[in-house]
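Hi everyone,

Forwarding the result from last night's run.
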Amino acid sequence: MHKKGAALLLAIFSLIIISLLVTAFLELTTIDLQIISNHLMRNQALYIADAGIEYAISQLRINKNWKQTLRPIELPVGSGNTYDVTYSSVSGKINSMAKLASGQEITLEAKVSVKTGTPAYAVKIIYWREL
């Protein structure tokens, strides 16, 4: 009779240990998935802000007096992800703020110099950084 009781206690104890291990594993997996999701969104925002800087540079190569657009540009179209680019010809700074539909935001700044001459103007990047 004691053997049956001991086996039952051992089985219950084993199930409790296994349940705790599975719960801990699921918790770690959930945290890892959140970290991966945050990393993915940050990189997506970084690439969209980078696209804004590249867009401004391409416009400055065509027209050294280019001014930023008045509205954010959606990239890709229909995604809800946007970048908004500003350029100051006085400071030579391009700022590109990306905003994802999820709310993640990132801003990049590039300082450039535009060589005068005939189109296509040479645009030299002095620095490029995240703000």
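The chain is about 45% helix and 25% strand.

Cheers,
N.
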